[in-house]
Amino acid sequence: MLMQTHEARLSALREELKKRGLDGFVVPISDEHMSEYIGGYAQRLAWLTGFGGSAGTAVVLADKAAIFTDGRYTVQVRDQVDGKLFDYQSVPATSPAKWLGENAPEGAKIGYDAWLHSKGWAEQVAKALEKKHAALVPVEGNPIDAVWADRPEPSNAPALVHDDSRSGRSSADKRAEVADWLKAEGYDAAVVSALDSVAWLLNIRGQDVERTPVALSYVIAHADGTAELFIGEDKVTPELTQHLGNAVRIRPRAAFEAALGELKDKAVAVDPNYGVAAIFHALEGAGAKPVAVRDPTILPRAVKNPVEQQGQRDAQARDGAAIARYLHWLSVEGPKGGLDELSAAAKLREFRDASDILKDLSFDTISAAGPHAALPHYRVDEDSNIAIAPSSIYLCDSGGQYLDGTTDITRTVWIGPGEPSAEQKDRNTRVLKGHIALARAVFPQGTVGGQLDALARQFLWQAGVDYAHGTGHGVGSFLSVHEGPQRIAKITGAQAGSDQELLPGMILSNEPGYYKEGAYGIRIENLVLVEKREIDGAEGDYLGFETLTFAPLDKALVEVSLLTPEERAWWNDYHAKVREVLAPQLEGEVLAWLEEACRPL
């Protein structure tokens, strides 16, 4: 029997926990690879609670339950989750560990799925439970799966070969680099469990997770340059087998845990951020020596080779033309009224779909009108959808997954008629000035992302305002739109990655913003490529950014008097390049609109 209400689902889970002798259970948004986006089969928190955000955790005890989300989801969690069933808890003010330490019964057994949590998380929670003489217990089989009658099966779509002509390096070359690292560090093997790392290392892609072109799989890479790929047998095609060759042994995905047991006495590198607790448990149980160390594919994946860099430029040019068509359409249809957030997002998808090498969006489009634009991570659905009102601000953050690159762009526009308020123009111009300051930055080799963050915030700070998200994240090459280890953000414990040195070939977003709660929001986002800069007389090596994203910015929201001559020159140069890149792809009314949008200030 299918349980339609979340109350019935919660009750069924409690019954299952009782049968297993458990006093509680922790339900994260996660899969076995610690992925940002997860398949329908792993959406256990959404099934249990109704919460549709991308980050959150629930803890269920016999007599109470709580759901934990951060500031991005304060409004959404209250809209979607019944407060009579789950107490709302805000992270980082509290955490599942802290809450369990205060609320778990004396001597309780709290269950967790070791395939969905990191080892560090499990250790932290176990420590918090000690004061209640309670224990954190790994479960055999997830109890939610036992009561979720219509749980979707994991995708069985075939894995796809990502041709060397697009990847720029062969899998053999990448595996040899990993093997050299293993030998240099004194390890016998590395467990590669992040899906985008597997995809990059073997030059494969997949269709198993919406918005990220990856295949559900694991790799064990060995110090002799060979590897074992653990993947569903129905995903293996003759093309994949031929592509991988003799040095990559293909094994069933279900054999992965047992294969960890074959590494007895071996020193095995496991990334603590992507290697779940179950991997460490299996290795330790087999007498192997797991070492918590960063996945050796992450840094080489972040530094794009020349083929990937050119692919990104090509993808951005194609994407920019779709954005130009969309912005022109908005300029015509928006002032008439009649548009809403969902119809606008669908129209943008239509423009992108005109490309025959678009494979997916790179994330769910943030199509945000009026007060919704003040929610940086807003996601529109049938329930939240509102009209895009004439005489208002509209923010659209979107991207595409193309065979040659992954795009991510935000444009904030004024929907006419009339003029934006003086405050709206002031705030948008301060965001623009920060964007320009970061785009024009020149910095010595060895600079980390966190050292550049204040460049983008300084003009907002001067007005006593700020924004609560990072300024820039790494971006993959037809892979994850959020890719580490580089980022540009305030250097705090919560912003891991801000201390990564920026290296030539890395791609990041440049996306300062401003958000006035309940009123409007502004964000300007382009992608940039870290490149070497030649400076006469320079003492040492210096770097800067090549802007990759080309689409017009809205002049109506700019207070030109606040711009310096250098900032106006940047605007004019940028729009001259926009015209150069996009005009050959456009015609008729759209081309005329582009010419007007790109006229110098």
From TrEMBL:
One of its GO terms (molecular function) is aminopeptidase activity. Keywords: Aminopeptidase, Hydrolase, Metal-binding, Protease. Residues 542-601 form the Peptidase M24 C-terminal domain. InterPro entries: Creatin/AminoP/Spt16_N, Creatinase/aminopeptidase-like, Creatinase_N, Pept_M24, Pept_M24B, Peptidase_M24_C, X-Pro_aminopeptidase_P. Pfam families: Creatinase_N (PF01321), Creatinase_N_2 (PF16189), Peptidase_M24 (PF00557), Peptidase_M24_C (PF16188). SUPFAM superfamilies: Creatinase/aminopeptidase (SSF55920), Creatinase/prolidase N-terminal domain (SSF53092). Residues 161-173 have a biased composition (Basic and acidic residues). Belongs to the peptidase M24B family. This is Xaa-Pro aminopeptidase. The lineage of its organism: Bacteria, Pseudomonadati, Pseudomonadota, Alphaproteobacteria, Sphingomonadales.
